[in-house]
Structures are given as structure tokens and as C-alpha cells.
Automatic annotation (TrEMBL):
UniProt-listed Gene3D superfamilies: 3.40.50.2300
Keyword Transmembrane helix among record annotations: no
Catalytic residues (positions): 11, 17, 130
PANTHER family linked: LOW MOLECULAR WEIGHT PHOSPHOTYROSINE PROTEIN PHOSPHATASE (PTHR11717:SF7), LOW MOLECULAR WEIGHT PROTEIN TYROSINE PHOSPHATASE (PTHR11717)
Subcellular location field: Cytoplasm
Catalytic reactions on record: O-phospho-L-tyrosyl-[protein] + H2O = L-tyrosyl-[protein] + phosphate; a phosphate monoester + H2O = an alcohol + phosphate
Protein's name in the database: Phosphotyrosine protein phosphatase I domain-containing protein
SMART domains attached to this UniProt entry: LMWPc
GO molecular function, one term: protein tyrosine phosphatase activity
Organism: Babjeviella inositovora NRRL Y-12698
Family to which this protein belongs: Belongs to the low molecular weight phosphotyrosine protein phosphatase family.
Length: 169
């Protein structure tokens, strides 16, 4: 398959969950040698509240402590992005509802919860809760594990099949 994939992750403010998801997913794609199959991996907000801001310090700390580089400035998803990406993943139902409301007819993007790729429902919720108001790092550590699992499952089930990869992920 010659068509490259593009994936966007979206949360409310683009400073906690979605930049973490982007960083984790990008690292996994690179580690698996799949970068040449992706046109774009990015993250956005449904709100313009934090435009231009760096990720939350706790997001940066958890990513870096797990060996995942993160560098991002918050930005808001635009309607035109729905035709740029194959997949646009919201972190919770509110994100998905807002994304769906602005998804143009016949848009390229498949919009849904990133948690649709949850193969461990006893261990992880399908919704990625916003850790912004939490104290400490434990909630950020949990969502890192959650997003890492969803990334693995998406790459294993969706990408491997779509790209018809011979090697098992």
C-alpha cells in the first residue's frame, strides 16, 4: 500500500492527554521502523484556550521519565484538518462529540475514541480522563500506560492490516 497514514490526537486543551498520546505514538512508530508509512502524527485541542502553550510540566516529566521525547505547542484543530488526517482520536466522549459536530460530510478522517483500541478493559478504561486538575503524577502515569496500550493495539490491529505488514507488531 502506497498511501501513507495520518493520525491526530485531540483533547480539550492540548497540553496533557493529546500531546502525550502524540509523543507515545510517534516513539512507537519510530521504534517499530514504521515512520515511512506515516505522513503526519500530530495533536490538537478542541478549545483555543491554551494556544501556543507548552505541554503541562507533569506530562513532560512522565514522558521524559519513560524515555519518550515530547516537544509541542498547543493548537486547535480546524475543520480542514478533517480532510488531512485518516484518523482523529478524541480522548473522551466530549472531545468526540465536538469533533463529530465539526466533521464535514465526506471528510477523510475517521473520528472516534482512541480507547476503541482497548484490549484490556479490566485494566484500562476506554475513556482517557483529563488529569489536569489532579494532584501529583499518579494520574499522568496511569494515562501514559493507557495511551501506550491503545497505541500498541491500534498499530497491531489497524495499521498492520491496512499496510499488510508481514512482520507481527
Amino acid at each position: 500500500m502506497d498511501q501513507k497514514l495520518s493520525v491526530a490526537f485531540v483533547c480539550f486543551g492540548n497540553i496533557c492527554r493529546s500531546p502525550m498520546a502524540e509523543a507515545i505514538f510517534r516513539k512507537k512508530v519510530e521504534d517499530l521502523g514504521l515512520s515511512h508509512h506515516f505522513d503526519c502524527i500530530d495533536s490538537f485541542a478542541v478549545s483555543g484556550l491554551n494556544k501556543g502553550k507548552d505541554p503541562d510540566a507533569r506530562t513532560v516529566h512522565v514522558c521524559e521519565s519513560r524515555g519518550v521525547p515530547i516537544s509541542h505547542k498547543a493548537k486547535q484543530l480546524s475543520i480542514s484538518d478533517h480532510n488531512k488526517f485518516n484518523y482523529i482520536f478524541g480522548m473522551d466522549e466530549n472531545n468526540v462529540n465536538r469533533l463529530s459536530a465539526y466533521n464535514p460530510r465526506k471528510a477523510k478522517a475517521r473520528v472516534g475514541l482512541f480507547g476503541e483500541w482497548n484490549a484490556k478493559p479490566a485494566e484500562f478504561e476506554t475513556v482517557v480522563d483529563d488529569p489536569f486538575r489532579s494532584e501529583g503524577l499518579s494520574e499522568f502515569e496511569h494515562i501514559f500506560d493507557q495511551l501506550s496500550h491503545f497505541s500498541d493495539e491500534f498499530l497491531r490491529s489497524e495499521v498492520q492490516g491496512r499496510l499488510k505488514l508481514k512482520a507481527k507488531l
